[in-house]
TrEMBL record:
Name of this chain's protein: Esterase
Gene3D superfamilies assigned: alpha/beta hydrolase (3.40.50.1820)
One Pfam family from the record: Abhydrolase_3
Superkingdom of origin organism: Bacteria
Gene Ontology MF, one: hydrolase activity
Entry-linked SUPFAM superfamilies: alpha/beta-Hydrolases
UniProt keyword annotation of Metal-binding present: no
InterPro entries registered for this protein in UniProt: AB_hydrolase_3 (IPR013094), AB_hydrolase_fold (IPR029058), GDXG_lipolytic_enzyme (IPR050300)
Alphabetic keyword roster: Hydrolase
Every Alpha/beta hydrolase fold-3 domain range: 66-174
Length: 275
């Protein structure tokens, strides 16, 4: 690492067995598809090879759709590595739609964000009922950016978003512009980083915001999480901010596998502990 900001955002370096976690995600995602393949379909929303959505249906007709966006600092990982995280929401009666998107530096971060906006609009066109947006790490940035005033999200989709859940999300990209690793890959400078930061933008959607982060995550990840909840409260959005005890950057999303966990029930808009 070349400077203090690289270390401050090095999630893999902060978790000793990070590679084992990522390998397990691949294995568990494949196992989920083997079991639930008959309930899955893929839908393309653009011409790029990575512009597609993996949709999983619950046993009974879905009453809402959870849209999930994976992390990887906008430059790595795949939606397929998170398919297993649909289990809890499916058990709560939600449809789950995983957005895949082109990666940097093959595309600009602005173009990547536009792909996600197009995907959310496509999901809205293909479904009925409420939409809940959730994303992990870079995905937390992408779901919160999507509901900002000037994101380009269609009004018909925006009006149906009842909750946004940012899990270990990145909401002010200006510190990342100071890294020699991530910032260089993204080609970020301060003006672009500021323009792409949800924390510096006006939210515009009818739902509420939850920011969730592991209590054992890097200090900058915790700061980023609490930051957005704090700022958007002052901009008219009902917000909550939670640290999950004992969880690091990769374990924090594991709770989505079970229907009774607080994280799953927040995503399903159910009160944790209710029947």
């Amino acid at each position: 690492m070349s400077n203090v900001w690289d270390k401050a955002y090095d999630n893999r370096g902060a978790v000793a067995d990070a590679d084992a976690w990522l390998a397990a995600w691949q294995t568990d995602g494949a196992a989920f598809r083997h079991t639930h393949g008959s309930r899955m379909r893929q839908r393309r929303y653009g011409g790029h090879p990575r512009e597609f959505i993996d949709i999983v249906e619950p046993d009974a007709p879905a009453h809402a759709t959870l849209v999930f966006i994976h992390g990887g600092y906008w430059r790595s990982l795949d939606a397929a590595e998170n398919h297993q995280l649909a289990a809890g929401a499916l058990a709560c009666g939600l449809r789950v739609a995983f957005i895949e998107y082109p990666l940097c530096p093959d595309v600009s971060l602005e173009s990547l964000c536009d792909s996600v906006i197009a995907a959310i609009g496509d999901i809205a066109d293909a479904t009925s009922g409420d939409l809940i947006l959730a994303g992990h790490s870079a995905g937390g940035h992408l779901v919160t950016h999507a509901v900002t005033q000037h994101s380009g999200l269609p009004d018909t989709a925006r009006a149906r978003i009842k909750r946004v859940v940012s899990i270990s999300g990145l909401h002010d990209l200006r510190p990342l512009a100071r890294t020699t690793d991530i910032g260089a890959t993204l080609g970020l400078d301060m003006p672009r980083a500021g323009a792409l930061s949800p924390a510096l933008s006006q939210p515009d959607f009818p739902g509420d915001l939850l920011c969730v982060v592991g209590a054992d995550e890097l200090a900058e990840l915790k700061r980023q999480s609490h930051l957005l909840a704090n700022i958007w409260t002052g901009l008219g959005v009902a917000t909550q901010s939670h640290e999950l005890a004992g969880e690091h950057h990769f374990s924090v999303v594991e709770a989505l596998r079970g229907p009774g966990t607080a994280l799953t029930r927040w995503c399903a808009r159910l009160r944790p502990g209710s029947g």
